[in-house]
Amino acid sequence: MHRPLTITEDPALLDDLVRIAAAAGSQLDVAHTPAHARPFWNLAPLIAVGADQADAMAATSPPTRDQVLLVTRDVEDPDTWRKCVAVGAQAVLTLPNDERHLVERFAEAMEPDPRSGSVICVIGGRGGAGASVLSACLALRASGDHLRTLLVDADPLGGGIDALLGQEEASGSRWGDLVAREGRINSSALQAALPSFGDLAVLSFHRGEVAAIPPQAMRSVLEAGQRGFDLIVVDLPRHFAPASIEALTRAKTTLVVATADVRSVLSTVQVLNEARKHTSDLRAILRPGVLGGESAAESLGIPSAGVFPDQPRLTATLNRGELPNLGPRTDLGALCATLLQDLLAP
């Protein structure tokens, strides 16, 4: 894939552009003169022309194209807009004021053909309902079906969904490496940074002390996920922190896992009261209990999306670091397959 091009002989401006591109997960092709730039002009996804080279570049009458920016460090230069028009740039960016915008433009330029991934949130109606297990199984089944899938652990106190998958020692970035990020994240860089297993990438927490996820970081991750993945599964905690609300507002569907017993139904109703403030499409996944499934679903007041079957050996399988059998002939595999078919339908 071709890289963005910068055209400048100003060493201070070049240093700024290289640093900004690195923040966007990109490298630059650098041309110090128009002659050096000519072979890259029609190939680069984005071109940043330094104000020092704008007139020289314009003198070569380069072909008209989009994604050309004029970049300057001189706020007071009265000739800036004339240079912008002369070189055929669509915008003028002034550093350092427009640095964040330029990071986003570099990141956008390096994106592959964008996908349009669906965000599915999963939340437990009460503790131990099995929301994390369903999140992991849903993501595993989707990636097994060759859907590019991102599994996001949004619960800092949940023990780590990577551990649930037996992959707590896998190398790659965790939330602690991303919480300071604001603005656009390159989806390819995100996928490359995270622990990945085939078509599944996992974003979890480091062991030890953890901090809450800033909503800006959750927003950046989910936006990158939607551009680079087919499906994003978010395992939510039961407390509605700002990052959880950020995920809920972006969810195509939120699955609420509840056991069919009185206490679980009462607890789930409380969770639903809060969730409805932030999202609209809520569906129940019921686990067998003392109540009938229809009675429990009616008490919750949301559609039932399926029954999460009891899996007597599932916990032992996961504790051994093994993955469950999600084949189409297993009850859990069939549930995940049906959910994916329904949730990802146009």
UniProtKB/TrEMBL annotation:
Pfam families: CBP_BcsQ, Rv3660c_N. Residues 7-115 form the Rv3660c-like CheY-like N-terminal domain. InterPro entries: Cellulose_synthase_operon_BcsQ, P-loop_NTPase, ParA/MinD_ATPase, Rv3660c, Rv3660c_N. SUPFAM superfamilies: P-loop containing nucleoside triphosphate hydrolases (SSF52540). PANTHER family: SEPTUM SITE DETERMINING PROTEIN (PTHR43384:SF11), SEPTUM SITE-DETERMINING PROTEIN MIND HOMOLOG, CHLOROPLASTIC-RELATED (PTHR43384). This is Septum site-determining protein Ssd. The lineage of its organism: Bacteria, Bacillati, Actinomycetota, Actinomycetes, Streptosporangiales.
